[in-house]
Amino acid sequence: MNCSFRYNLLRKKFPATSFTGAPVLSDAGFDLLNKLLTYDPERRITVDEALKHDWFREVPLPKSKDFMPTFPAQHAQDRRGRRMVKSPDPLEEQRRKELTQAELGSGGLFG
C-alpha cells in the first residue's frame, strides 16, 4: 500500500512557505516527519533510514555539538534558590508579631 499523507493535517501546521514569520518545513522535512509519525510500526521509518534521510543534508546543515551552548541544569539552580529563599510561614509571622508586640508592651486593646 502506498504511503499517502492525505489524512493528516501536518502540512497546515508546518507550511512549506510562510509570509507571517511562522516556522516552515521543507518537503524533505515534511516527508521525514510523516514517516516518523506513521502509526503503523511496520510502515514507520527505521532509525537508520531516518538518519540517512535527505532532510539532514539540506541547508542549514546540522551543527556539531561543540557549537551548541551549554547551560547549568535547571533543577540545580532551583535547589540553590530554595535554600536561600524560604517561603514565609504565615503562622510563624503572626507568632513573631505577637511576641514583638508583647515585648514592647503593646498588647492590643488592653495593653
TrEMBL record:
Database matches in Gene3D superfamilies: Transferase(Phosphotransferase) domain 1
Stored InterPro entries: Kinase-like_dom_sf
Superkingdom of source: Eukaryota
SUPFAM superfamilies attached to this UniProt entry: Protein kinase-like (PK-like) (SSF56112)
Region (Disordered): 66-111
Protein name: Cyclin-dependent kinase G-2-like
Organism (species): Camelina sativa
